[in-house]
Fold this protein.
Amino acid sequence: MGTLRGKTAIITGASSGIGKAAALLFAAEGASVVLGARRLAELNAVVLEIRQAGGESVCLAGDVQEEAFAKELVSLAVARYGGLDIGFNNAGTLGPMGPTPGIELHRWRETVDVNLTSAFLAAKYQVPAMLDRGAGSLIFTSTFVGHTVGFPGVAAYAASKSGLVGLAQALASEFGPRGIRVNALLPGGTDTSMGRAMNATDDAIAHVASLHALKRIAQPVEVARAALFLASDYASFVTGTAMLVDGGVSINRT
């Protein structure tokens, strides 16, 4: 226990799924966590759970597409906890599904804004706060989809999420000399509301599970544990990576 003791972390998409699991885990490991998502009631419930377990947490509801929200999350972290050490920029959307020629431009742009531009906005404000600390860890939730495996009908999702790998590499090179590590986390199939939206029937879920070498999908906390590693000093020499946490879906052919 205490892997993140004395650290302050921002976690977006923290009202459910991987983000919620990370919020509970990071707080249990000693971090003060600033939680962001659109749904205030759900965020408040996570904050209450953390506080009842003896942890430190505050939350702010907002839309990661908005630059002001990125700035306000950092301001809250600094005002409440004195600075920022970790940014787990996890919020995302599946976006439009179906044949690519049928995707409306405004839906494409919305998906890119939520999945990719939001990460740029997060870094724009999180990096300066981390520089004030002399070090930090930025983490972006990407996916294996569009990186190691192609699937039909998810062009906006794949393109926007795979862009996070390039962003992480650029930032890692730019700010590595100043002590900031930047990595992309690439989960495989995970039992979240987004995963269930992508695979809406028991048969579809079973098929996705069969694609993985482990023949199952992940629980959110399993991905959160990988994020914890990247956030912690155990990953002190890890930066610029596309870290697969995918149950072997990228290599499996059985």
